[in-house]
Design goal:
It is a multi-pass membrane protein. This protein is an all-alpha fold. About 85% of the residues lie in helices and about 0% in strands. It has a single domain (about 20-210, about 230-430), classed as Growth Hormone, Chain: A (Up-down Bundle), CATH 1.20.1250.
């Protein structure tokens, strides 16, 4: 069923409102990551006891506390609604931004500065789960295919745009010697604006309908049937974990491990690496927007599968090139190609999410994303370093190839579920 012009306009406005919050979350997340070398000395100076440990904890706490945030805001989203969740999480992120921008350093208030900074990072990590997942699920339950895939892909592209602006901001501040606090003040302004604007959203109609049916049938003979229909398929949950697990590893590969080769083998400076990563992030945003448009004419699962096949070919040639190629330009080109064809569930995520019951969808999807990405960050930042120390760039195969296999199997699994549903739907319409 096609959208009317009025519906299309309303859905476009909703997508824009949701994209603001998603942009903010990833802007804040990567702003701290890229500017840790500037921020940490202010709150975790070398002379203070435990500063090294606390500084690293502040950096990683965003990912460590994501599963807790997923359980909290997933439950809120499934009980109270999608709208209130995306509003609350945006405002929480804004409060954290304001606090970080105005927070005195260690020299002024001592350990209190460290505790408050870590608390702000924890809030950012927890609220991110309600923000990103809430935006995607909201649009899933508001719109219909094929434009559903376009709207959700545009929200997903806001994550890359947030990372790009964070990196560009870091580059600008380092180049001109400005205070990092201005960046977080800017983030808080976006959060407040986005949070207020989102109060105009209406609740996702699919959630509202399912909630009313549940309340109507709660004490009727249909309760058992209703409970069965809301049961989560464990196999689907496990395969969703596999799809989400690739994301942090893809970031580490593109923006950490390949740039390390440019630094170690070709003497690239920190500024050179930032410039390369800026180019990579720009390419990522362009590709995301292009895919959002292509998905209107090509099946999103086909797009995901084609990209995965090309990525496997790149992975097979990646270590030899990183180890032996004498030209930095070839490695930069390879970095760009990995950015274009990296493993990612988008733009097929609405298909994956739709196979979970509406009234448990938020909790399941958010927790799967949070748990899988936290585990993958550990692989990309902790486990992979010893492998590279022993096997060089060839150590990448030990993680990338198994991740590809799991990802490919997961996509095939959901593709089969989708075909079964389409067949059943076609049979019921006859």
């Amino acid at each position: 069923m096609k959208e009317s012009d009025n519906e299309r306009l309303q859905h476009a406005k909703t997508t824009a409102l949701l994209s603001v919050g998603t942009f903010l979350e990833f802007f804040d997340l990567f702003l701290y990551v890229h500017m840790a070398q500037i921020i940490n000395p202010v709150f975790f100076p070398q002379g203070a006891s435990g500063s090294w440990l606390l500084g690293n904890f502040a950096l990683l706490s965003t990912f460590m506390f994501r599963p807790i945030g997923a359980l909290i805001f997933g439950r809120i989203g499934d009980v109270l609604g999608r709208k209130i969740t995306v509003i609350v999480t945006t405002m929480m992120s804004g409060i954290a931004c304001v606090t970080m921008a105005a927070l005195p350093g260690y020299e002024s208030i001592g350990m209190s500065a460290q505790v408050l900074m870590i608390l702000c990072r924890v809030i950012q990590g927890m609220s991110a789960m309600g923000e990103v997942t809430g935006a995607e699920i909201y649009l899933l339950e508001l719109t219909k295919p094929p434009r559903r895939y376009f709207y959700i892909a545009m929200v997903a592209s806001a994550t890359g745009l947030g990372g790009l602006f964070a990196l560009a901001t870091c580059n600008f501040i380092l180049k001109f010697g400005l205070s990092w606090r201005y960046a977080f003040a800017f983030g808080s302004l976006i959060a407040v604006t986005g949070g207020v604007a989102r109060t105009a959203l209406r609740e996702a109609p699919e959630f509202t309908r399912e909630k009313m049916i549940m309340l109507r049938n709660k004490s009727s003979s249909l309760t058992k049937t209703m409970t069965t229909s809301n049961k989560v398929n464990i196999r689907s949950f496990m395969w969703l974990l596999a799809i989400n697990a690739v994301l942090p590893m893809m970031f580490c590969l593109r923006c950490i491990h390949i740039p390390e080769t440019l630094q170690n083998r070709f003497g690239f400076s920190t500024q050179d690496v930032i410039n390369c990563n800026l180019a990579v992030s720009t390419v990522e945003v362009i590709v995301d927007v292009a895919l959002a448009c292509i998905v209107l004419i090509i099946s999103p699962i086909k797009i995901v599968k084609y990209r995965a096949h090309i990525f496997l070919a790149l992975v097979l040639i990646l270590p030899p090139i990183l180890e032996y190629c004498p030209y930095s330009s070839v490695i930069i080109l390879l970095q760009m190609l990995v950015t274009i064809f990296y493993l990612c569930g988008s733009p097929a995520t609405p298909i994956f999410y739709s196979h979970f019951p509406t009234l448990k969808r938020f909790t399941v999807v958010a927790f799967a994303f949070a748990f899988a990405t936290a585990a993958s960050w550990a692989l990309g930042t902790v486990v992979l370093d010893p492998l590279k120390a022993r096997f060089g760039a060839f150590g990448l195969w030990a993680i990338l190839i198994p991740l590809y296999i799991l990802f490919a199997l997961a996509v095939v699994y959901f593709e089969r579920l989708e075909k079964k549903r389409d067949t059943a739907s076609a049979g019921s319409n006859e």
